Structures are given as C-alpha cells and as structure tokens.
Amino acid sequence: MKITAAVLEVSGAQPPFAQSHPFTVGELQLDPPGPGELLVRIEAAGVCHSDLSVVDGNRVRPVPMLLGHEAAGIVEQLGDGVADVAPGDRVVMTFLPRCGECDGCRTDGRLPCAPGTAANNAGTLLGGAIRLHRALDGETEDVRHHLGVSAFATHAVVSRTSVVPVDPDVPSEIAALLGCAVLTGGGAVVNAGRPAAGDRVVVVGLGGVGMAALLVAVALGHKVIGVDTVAGKLEHALACGAAEALTPADAVDRGIRAPVVVEAAGAARAFETAVALTAPGGTTVTVGLPAPDARASVSPLQLTAEARTIVGSYLGSAVPSRDIPRYVELWRAGRLPLERLVSSRIGLDDLDAAMDRLTAGGELRQLITFEGNHA
C-alpha cells in the first residue's frame, strides 16, 4: 500500500534543521505484514530525543530511515500467526521488540532482547525484514525501520511483540505517550529505582521522559523534587505536583539528597548532578542517552563508603505488556495526568522545526497527529 511518511535522508545534519532539512515528506510503498506482524494505522506519534539523536548523528543508524518510535494506532491487518489482537484494536507501539527466548528476555525487563537490539541497529523488523520502499531514479530503494516502529507516517508494519493493546477509552494521544516517555520515565522509578513508601525522589532533567518520571512518582505518593535549568520546566514541574523545583546549582547548594535520583537529561553533567544528589545508600538511575563519547567523573571512594548504587535503565527496565496496563489504571483513576506531557501538536511537515525546538530544550512532548486518520 502507499503511505505518506517523513524520511530522514541524512544523519548528522547541521542545525538549525529548519534550514538543513534532513527530512523529506513523501510517498512510500509499505508491504503487507508478514508472519508475526501487523499493519497499524498511526493516530499519534511523539517526537523524542532518541529520534533527535539519530538526526544529529549521536546515534549512528543506516539511512534513509523512517523515524518515530513512540506511537499509537489502530490495527488494520494481521499477518500469519497473529491471533491475540484484532482489526480495530488500539495498540501502543513500543521500541524494543522481544523474541522471548534470549538471555536478555529472561531478565524481567532489566536487559534488552539481543535479537531485538540487533534488528533495531540494522534498521529492520524483528524477523529481519524491511517493509518500506520507495521509487528512486527508476529503481526501488529500501527505507530502514527505526526501532521496529517507524511511526512518522500514516501507517506502519510492526512485529506483534512491538505493540500492547489498550482499551478504547484510552485516547490515542495518551496511548502514544505510554510507548516511550511513560515506559522509560515511569519505569526508571518503579522498576529500577524502587523507592520505598514515602521516599523522596529527585528527577534531574525535565523533558518528556523526566516529566513522566515525575508524574509517576507523584502518582505513587512520593515527595518529588524536579531539577532542570529551564525555568518554564521548573514551573511546569510544580504544576504537575512536584514538592520543589530547583536548578542543579540550587539543589546542590542546598544539600538536597534523596534515596532515589533519576537522571533523564542525557548529559554527563546532569549525571554528575544526579550522583551528587543521591543520599548515602541510595540509587542513581540513569535513563538519558548522552553522546557516545561523553564521560562523567564519579568518586569510587564515595560509592564504596556510602554504599551507593548506580544503575542504567533502558526503556525503564520495562516489560511493556505488564507495565502499560499499570499506567493505564493510574491514568484512569485520575492519578496520572499524562495530558500534561503534551507541549504541542504538529504535522509531518513540521518535523525539521520540531527537532530544533527539541534541541533548544523547551519542549516536553511534541505529538504528530494525523487529521482524518482516526477511527
């Protein structure tokens, strides 16, 4: 079938992207779903720093590539062997497919799936297929998949293991946010940090993932302190239920300490700040994705003398089929106002400028919505 999509033509383009134009919006050919796959009509897709990291070259991926890994949509067609979802179901799309058999899949979410990671790095679906193509100079060119989803388009073919069905009462925009921001940020708190009842939680970096971590921690009854350099994000953190919102310098100067500190900025300096704000015996959880050559300074003596733990958390150490229903119940109960994560709504043609806004640091989640593409 023919779809409309925003394709990343070059990785490592120079900002401002509104001038270098790394994306082109046009027509692609999407193959039908193969065995274990399904066709999804995209309703909403979030713009995340993981997309930006491919655009700016911090994450090397093959191009041309159709980005977008946080999304929700409606199932339209099933491949052979898919029997537990049906056409018409709304699904959350997640960016780490799982084979269910490798060593990583046996760690209850702590480690990613090895075949899924290999497929993501290669720009294929879990089974190794490429379902996206376009005509170029009289030839057919493959367009790579991004993290098994490729949601910056009207439709996507994905592995069944890349989706989690949700009930119809969950709006598409809320469902989209569950696929990355909430799984990653919320999971950093629930699965990796595991604060005890009443523990203070600090979140360093209040973008989409960090603010989702803050919202989940507040929903679970923790006193939360938000830390960021952007005044508008500090104000928003307070509106989202944070007990305090501070700049990194103010938090350090005041001697703030917490048993669980989540670093969601993806910068070495933010990681160092998070370690400094972690109480003796506490856990620093890092979910940000800094540049591959970024380095941070940590005192080994402090780790030993204060019995500190530093833990990395990829996709919030999540098992999506287990965790997404938990977040849905918190949202449905009115305790998890995920609507507060949406900072703007855009179209495919706005992606170049959206990446500039994300680089500037003022956005939480920009959502691509597809007019006329809803049930």
SSE order and pairing:
Blueprint: E1 2-8, H1 17-20, E2 23-30, E3 37-47, H2 49-55, E4 65-66, E5 70-78, E6 90-93, H3 114-122, E7 132-136, E8 139-142, E9 144-145, E10 155-159, E11 163-166, H4 172-193, E12 200-204, H5 208-219, E13 223-227, H6 231-239, E14 244-246, H7 248-253, E15 258-263, H8 268-276, E16 278-286, H9 300-305, E17 309-312, H10 320-332, E18 342-346, H11 351-360, E19 365-369
Parallel strand pairs: 4-9, 12-13, 12-15, 13-14, 15-16, 16-17, 18-19
Antiparallel strand pairs: 1-2, 1-4, 2-7, 3-5, 3-10, 3-19, 5-6, 6-11, 7-8
Helix pairs in contact: 4-5, 4-10
Amino-to-carboxy terminus distance: 19 Å
Mean pLDDT across all amino acids: 96
- The quaternary organization reads as single chain
The fraction of residues assigned to DSSP E strands is: 25-35%
